[in-house]
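ping. complex inputs:
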Amino acid sequence: MSSWHIPDDLRERYLEGTLEPAQAMSVDAHLGRCAGCRAAVPYEKDWLEASWARLEAELITPRLSLPERFLRHGGVPDHLARLLSATPTLSRAWLTAVVAVLAFAVLAAREQAELLPAFLIAAPVLPLAGIALAYGPRVDPAHEWVAATPMSGSRLLLTRATAVLAVSVVLAGLASPLLPAPPGLAAAWLLPALAAAAGCLALSSRLPVPIAALAVGGVWLAIVGTGRLVGDWLAAFGPVPQIGYGVAALLLTYRLYRVSTR
Amino acid sequence: MIQIKQLTKTYATKRALDGLDLTLGTGVTGLLGPNGAGKTTLLRCLATTLAPDRGTVDAFGLNPADRVQRTALRRRLGYLPQNPGSYPHFTAFDLVDYVAILKELTDRGHRHAEVRRVLAEVNLTDQAKTKVRKLSGGMRQRLALAQALLGEPDLLILDEPTVGLDPEQRMMFRALVSRLGQSRTVVLSTHQIEDVAALCERVVVMRDGRALFDGTPGRLAAVADGRVWLSDAPPATTQLFWRTADGRYRTLGTPPPAAEAAAPGVEDGYLMLLGEAA
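pong. complex structure:
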């Protein structure tokens, strides 16, 4: 251990910041080893604690995952981005399944124009399935501790369902222009998808989410099947039914809003 | 103060809670009982993740049967479930941060400081950036405990918290829980009787959904007063006995020939109580 200590004049210049870089580094190195000289260097306690806190935060706080960075880049608040990144149905497996179903439906329609309804029927079902698998003890591995928090229940379900719906709609929207159909018909799945998702969420206040999704999915297939009975698969996608889906989506969303703010 | 009145819960044909009455105050209360006694069901009802069929829970004047009051109660409790699941792709920090968000800590700076605090409490600061799937069983258990500590809850519910912890970690856990119990209500269930003896000022023994015993660990040990014996030869009867580390036989109940009386422990009292209730 050295008996040398920083002379007063050198310390003054160090504190003023007028030392040459090499001298300043030498003083830094000595201060790291010598408690006596450190004690002689005045510092602001609050500043030092704040610096340590910042340093600790930098060292401990992990880097954000790719989906979180994407969401935050899109203006989503950081806590919401983290919430959404844990949505079970926004996993890679789910997204792959959605893309596969849409790709298959598009390819089938391009191969054979009569198969166009397959895409229009499937597109509203995908967000329903996603919502069914977004919240609950059977699908969320951490559901038991999630359920004991104030955000659990309809608030968390709504948050996750919105994310699932948005992702499904964007993917289906990207696939729609590839369909061999005029733009209006190619987008005829959108209002049914919104109405089905809102219906599922509205029903979830009375039924478990998967049961609510199954019920709404069944109603959707019944509507489409009725069109087939009158001789046209596309009857369920005509202008009058579209108005019905739009009105249903608005009313159900309003009901959801009332329930969630009650 | 938490008041539980006539709490009843039935799963299919199995009655897990059978008209249970219990009052919990500040301090650490340990729940003991065999598997299926109703401990976890009781804790889940307290944690608001399970609704009872009948009866009431009143926690700090809040009724969990009411949606708004249930949410208010959730703001004041921390819960470590028996089988804490997790998101394996999250890091330890991410996971606790996620639960902190669910507990409505939305300010990032404050939330991250709180996450760092609870990770330090359970000695997981060095593993903050480690993926959950790479943590050992004991570390995952400590991580689950960390999330329960977020926000310094008034009611801490711990279901088998020492499972998977090594002796050193259990000591650390005891120190932490006993400190927390000085100012809040802590209720824990365990099969580790030594944990109850070490840190609970009150113990409730449950069986078939009812409270068989409610008192201090000392009183539970006293149940076996005058009925614990040490002998060099095993007893001839079919009563409960085991061979101890020093080669002698510890018998509960009627003394074997040439036996000498031994001081009862909490485990003796617990076994005696369950034996009498069977």
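The mean pLDDT of chain A is 84.
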